Amino acid sequence: MYGLNWRVMAEFVVLGIESSCDETGVALVRAGTDLVPQLLGHALHTQVDMHADYGGVVPELASRDHIRRVVPLTRQALAQAGLALSAVDLVAFTRGPGLAGALLVGAGLACALGAALDKPVLGVHHLEGHLLAPFLGADAPRFPFVALLVSGGHTQLMRVDGVGRYTLLGETVDDAAGEAFDKSAKLLGLGYPGGPALARLAEAGNPAAYALPRPLLHSGNLDFSFAGLKTAVLTQIKRLAPQPLTDAQRANLAASAQAAIVDVLVKKSMVAVAQSGLRRLVVSGGVSANQRLRQQMDAASAQHGVRVHYPQLHLCTDNGAMIALAAAMRVQAGQAAPARQYAVDVLPRWPLDAL
Ligand code: KG4
Ligand code: ZN
User: Fold this and answer.
1) Residues 6 or more apart from 293 whose CB is under 8 A from it?
2) What is the dotted CATH code of the domain comprising 144-310?
3) Quick check: CB of 285 below 6 Å from ligand 1?
4) At 8, is the pLDDT very low, low, confident or very high (cuts 50, 70, 90)?
């Protein structure tokens, strides 16, 4: 069986394909028994401009664009790595969660390549990709750790004891942190996705200008709730109406919204770390690119004697590298047996703790 062979492969190359939402990413990672995983090539196309006119991701357009991009991006990643397709030992793809049609594109290419090359394929959990992304950097964490996963669709605190050993500690009961950024940004007239734009606008603002709610901050559990934030931002805008917001008011609202989100994320992470008895924290997912979150998390961690790790900035949002890496780490940990089975079956809904 192939799964058994993997344990003794000293060195192997994984091609990773990400197509769960609005980014097409393809990357090559070299890993092995005594190797620090190494990113060999990495190509990415974001559909942000295409969806911006609609104010959010249009699933059918996303699927079609993945189809257009995924093969040229694969060629690009291979060229960057200086490798031929024949050098690939394992083809990994995002199996879920995500948009069904979008996932099918990556799964379809992975299975086609696997079958053509006579190489095994492995479907990867998108959030496991985010979770493990910090291992592709100079400051790789060590197990066990607490992980704060903050993306456009998820906000979770997990205890991570090893590859595939994940315990959910708490999660959002409504909107995700990234969604809170995006919805607040939309109310301020910023484009889609608004997270990075809101963060830029906030630089000129005063985070204490408006007292926005920090829901569940003292709830005694590790759950989050962000749906009330957009209502609070809207209430402030209406309060200032009918005058249009001045630039200073917009910047102040952006800064206050960002401060509210970051405050809750940092405080709950510190509670989770304290409760776990661990001294290590990983923050990953698209929102982990946020500079205020990093600054505040660094400061709180220093105060509590916690070591905090992030993905490299260009690997925070969706990409193929984290998918290739997660596949490599899974097979190395004996947590997955990639097979020469080319069934294009994706899991649009797939809880991480079901792994
Ligand atoms: O992980 P990701 O690329 O996709 C999902 O798996 O959802 O995360 C995208 C989310 C979006 O909501 C985006 O606005 C947010 O991450 N984001 C940011 C920043 N960069 C991306 N939010 C705040 N500040 C940023 N710098
Ligand atoms: Zn993601």
Assistant:
1) 150, 262, 265, 266, 283, 287
2) 3.30.420.40
3) yes
4) low
